[in-house]
Design a protein that fits this description.
- The longest helix is centred in the last third of the chain and has 34 residues.
- The chain is flat, with a radius of gyration of 23 Å.
- The protein contains eight helices and seven strands, in the order βαβαβββαββααααα.
- It has a seven-stranded mixed sheet with strand order 1-2-3-4-5-6-7, covered by helices on one side.
Amino acid sequence: MVRRRAEHNECEIFSLEEVSLHQQDIERMEHLDRWCRELRILYLQSNLIPRIGGGTAVRTAKQNVGRLKKLQYLNLALNNIEVIENLEGCESLQKLDLTVNFVGLLSSVESLQHNVHLTELFLVGNPCAQFEGYRQYVVAALPQLMWLDGTVISRSERIRASQGLEEARRRVWEQEEEYLKRRGTEKEEALREKGDEERKPGFDGRWYTDINTAAPALAENQENREVEENLDEERREQEFWHTPCSFTPESRLEAHRHLEEKKKTKEK
């Protein structure tokens, strides 16, 4: 995939300075630190990445994107990221875009204090952006920033934010505790719903309205069977898209997998 996206660089990835991997259904990032050490711009928006680094362990994650020392701009908008982490090794990072993710641990922005060249950060559309004192806290915690969510940080704003940092930090921690409780409930509900779906009678990727009484009649007539299956598929679609649910990393991933399964069914 990386080599295909390096056409502008004659498909040479070792000297690649910019690559766009957006909208590729990526869930994990691996090997970029070994393949593309010259990367300065990396577009990864509109994927399904759950953590910055993408490895299954902290060590693996830090050895990936976190080792791109020349990286200046990282776009991870519209992914499933919940924590800001593993970017300490990106020594040249100037701009980080995390628009519309699921970052709820606002205190994790303090990990960016090591990125001394970071001047622009986007967190709009994340749960943490709704916290009371959100902007004040980020401005005070990251004195190197010049823009936050596209708005310039004035000298007077920075002074006011730094003066009230401890109080802002305390309020952020309180709100994080409440957020973590909600996320725990959301995760439990997602697991329960997944289990209920898998336990549905006759579940094989399709839903049946009356499997016991309809089966004999459907077996007698192939045409009626196909009609019934199409109706069941329509009912399934209606129920999936019209059942209210929270906007969470789990629901976003489930919606993506539902569309993928539908696409595969049509291809068959």
